[in-house]
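Sanity check

After download, print the first record. It should look like this:
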Amino acid sequence: MIREFREFIARGNVIDLAVGIIIGAAFTAIVNSVVADLINPILGLLTGGVDFTNKYVVLSGTPPEGASLAAARDSGAAVFAYGSFAMAVLNFLIIAWAVFLLVKAVNRLQRMAVKPAEEVVVAAPTQEELLAQIRDLLADRTVWADRPEPRI
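Expected structure tokens:
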């Protein structure tokens, strides 16, 4: 059983999966930083800092007047937190867009780094051209001058 476990761990698929998870975690930090540090401040400027997180409708119970979503939940009221959901959807779309842009940039860099060598296309001679060359060689007596005459 230990031998089988060693073979399982030593397989390339398990190691590739582990590397993928580690790189995915690092990539998550990059994406979160792009969204939080670059995109959200720009959106905040464009929207005037509007935050929908605390928008909700009370379904039952009585939270304190003007309470935040957290305070309304803490008071025991049943709330329909549409603002929190809207912000989660918006954050998802922003993150998906950032991932798209990052992947697109990485793919462009990879294409630039691995540029295929330009292939020189040499047109093969046609059948007529080959026959003309053979005819010219046969007609050129200097090619045959060094060879002895065949005896019949």
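If your output differs, re-run the checksum step. Summary of this record's structure: The first strand starts at residue 57 and ends at 60.
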